[in-house]
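Give me structure tokens for this 393-residue protein.
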Amino acid sequence: MTDPFAERASLQADQRIAKQVAFNMRRALGEDQTEEIDRLAAAFDFEAARGFYWNPPEFSFLWGTPLWDQASEDQRRSLNHIYWAAYYAQITSAEIATIFFNQIAAAGLYGAGNDFRPLCDTLDLETRQERAHINAFRTVGEKVERALFGARLFTYAMRGPYAETMVFGPAGSLKRWWRSAQIRAFAAFAPDRPTLAAHYLMIRGIRTLNGKMIQERLAKHIEAFQGYENAPIPARISKAHYTDESYHFNTSRIMSHEVPKLLPAADALERMAINRAVDGCQLDHTPFSVAINGIFWHDPALYEACLTLFRSPTFGMDEREAREMLRRCFTEESEGFHASATSHHTAVDNYRAYVEKTELLTPANREMRRMSASDLASRLRVNKAAYQRRFAH
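Here you go.
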């Protein structure tokens, strides 16, 4: 006889998975960095921090390019600070979307059974942490740009979750509209489809892997200083953020690899939606940028911001010098371009390993074929063609 009180699914049906969820939540709460990140953001003073490198030197804007090679030590520190501001501006964009999707996923899972609450509580904790992260990144980034340029170059006004995630991507207005429509469709369907809600965390896990690859190295930069309190505040924020994100990645892995075992198999619509989302992630991450190692921006979208940077008081170039520097940095091979290409190849390998056991993905998504097609020669061709179009006159 069917139990009239049975839920659609149960987290407790597999104690191994239930224990993973509980352990991850307990550790995440024990090492929650929200108060520390808020404290650091409130205390940040650009003038007090500007004499230090906030990241390892190789994680500086346009590192390993002609600009870096001819830069003075003060200019190199500025490029290091600009990298921090630009890198975390992209992370902010992703985390704004994450806040929204966390709540959609929690609604879908909670509807499957009351004992999925621990997963929903975990997502609630992570949402609260994301708001603290965003506040810190915006506080530091805006102070950097206000001091160096008096205007925004890589930061942006606060926005909602339907905006294009890639801050400097190749998408035009039609593609941005289509992305927004897809997000709205997911938001409409997922709360009634717990399997789809759980698999969103696979997409989050892929995107988090990209950040994890770079942020571990940014977080370790505090070891260059004699004690945590002696490190500049942005470096400490990087360390605290990486601590939180390590548990966020664990959540993504558990929810996308383990929790679906407790839920109905994905139907045709859900399989299509999940594959479309993974392909969209590949599309976002197909480019790689010489300007900022580890963020897969479309370099031509950066040309105007870089011209402003080159003409700013920090570098003092005239228009002709700025255009020539842009050409040399973005259309010629350099140590920086090779470093970014290596990071991109590493990301492809990591993404493949993460999804290799996910049977519902198409071969093109499981093998990350779209991303794999991107290489240094193709990026140089794209950059050269865009440069010629922009400065042909």
